[in-house]
Amino acid sequence: MPTTVATEGAPTSFQELEALLQNDTKVKVAVDGVLRGKFMSKEKFLGAASSDGFGFCSVTFGWDMHDQVYSPELLISNRANGYKDLLASIDLSTYRRIPWENNVPFFLVSFLDPDTKEPICVCPRGTIKKAMDKAASLSWECIAGAEFEYFNFKETADSLAQKKFHDLKPLTPGMHGYSLLRPQVNMEYFHDIFDESLKFGIDIEGHHTETGPGVLETALAYSPALRIADNAILFKYLVKSIGMKRGVLPSFMAKPWGNLPGCSGHIHVSLRTKDGKSAFAVSDTELKTGREGAANEDTKFISQEAEYFLAGILDGISDVMPMLVPNINSYKRLSGGEAFWAPNAVTYGYDSRGASIRVISPPSVPPSATRFEIRIPGADMNPYFALSAIFSLGLRGIEKKLKLSGPPIAQLKPEDKATGKVVKMLPLSLESSTEMMMRPGSIAREDSVFGNDFVDHFGGTRKHEVSLWKQAVTDWEVERYFELA
């Protein structure tokens, strides 16, 4: 099975690539995560495409999002190795043109060790390829979709700096989820997001207002996992770029305001068989009465493999939380719990938006649409890491034939969460989740999930984030203690 699905018109050979770029003078390339990249001359690009790739400074793995250098203990990029070049391998299947940048050709790259030519362990695209290759070895393909909620403001980068992020003006006032009226205001921006996405090779399933001042939600079409991860990271880039043209500043921050719902980044996942059918679906016979041997009523219309997959996610989700919820602010979204439609416990349930894992199956959808919605991530997630974590855990559950522990959320009582005897709570801070991921024996450290090298490197970047937070003095502290302490 292919690891990804090529963009329409993507070249399949070097000769096709040369023909494709015959009228261009430059090419834009980007690395994933916090999207970084550069323009290359066509000649330089073609030379790299005809060989193993080109050198790209490893400091991209040694910077945080504001270009502050991580601790030198990190494995991939540090002062000790002089921030040596990594090998950036161009993925021709990611070809697309940027419609708002004069249709300049665009490609994504993955990173290899320059000596061994093997993928480096912390390359985001490499991590998801690892999970997809594992599924392919079992004759399955990883399929996923993503939904983003994001606040939008009538601001610019300059006005943000001048206002010091205070008193920002939302794109529209009030709470107007699924409103048909609100998109009439700022209509060009609203429609540009949809239309330019399609031109950029990002298929959209739904696009609407969400509850909250100036909040939009966009659902990206179900695709092979690497393709949806590429589309998800590029969608943020697209929205921010369109916003610049229209005088709008979107934010994918998980919890911008304490008294309003946060921004989710829900992920839908399933496995597909070689003949294109859902591996999570029950047979036609089982549609009548449910699958014999199902753990409970909530799982009787999903396959046994799907139940193992679900058990795998629930078994390991707490050990990979930084992969789903990566930032200090991310946990503010979860701390509100079900009151803000954000899960804070290890729960599952049939068609339940109050659970961490929503089981979507017959009778509410046809068998072919059977899937799980992972409701833990916020819009600030790195989709490569989040998807690789989910599929790695799910496949681990299938391999180990893990059984579901605990009842579905509908059978839980309020005191079950309070006591923690029946329900396992998720770690609700970046510090605690990083400690859990990095501890000896963490499921994240298993080779089939992320492995020690990845955990030590990525965990080090999260410890850096925690350290910066501990040093910060917030407005809340000043307002509370400055005069009266």
Quick structural gist:
This protein is α+β, with helices and mostly antiparallel strands.
Structure description:
- GO terms for molecular function: ATP binding; glutamine synthetase activity; kinase activity.
- This is Glutamine synthetase/guanido kinase.
- Belongs to the glutamine synthetase family.
- Pfam families: Gln-synt_C (PF00120).
- Keywords: ATP-binding, Kinase, Ligase, Nucleotide-binding, Transferase.
- The chain is α+β, with helices and mostly antiparallel strands and 485 residues long.
- It folds into 2 domains: 14-120, Glutamine synthetase, N-terminal domain (Ubiquitin-like (UB roll)); 140-476, Glutamine synthetase/guanido kinase, catalytic domain (Creatine Kinase, Chain A, domain 2), CATH 3.30.590.10.
- Helices cover 33% and strands 19% of the residues.
- It contains 15 helices and 13 strands.
- It has helices at residues 14-20, 42-49, 124-137, 157-163, 187-199, 225-246, 286-289, 304-316, 321-324, 330-335, 383-400, 414-419, 430-438, 452-471, 475-481; strands at 26-31, 36-41, 54-57, 85-98, 104-112, 140-153, 204-209, 215-224, 249-251, 267-273, 348-350, 357-360, 371-374.
- Strands 6, 7, 8, 9, 10, 11, 12 and 13 form an 8-stranded mixed beta sheet that branches.
- A hairpin with a 5-residue loop joins strand 7 (204-209) and strand 8.
- Helix 3 (124-137) runs parallel beside helix 11 and helix 5 (187-199) runs antiparallel to helix 6.
- The N and C termini lie far apart (64 Å).
- The mean pLDDT is 92.
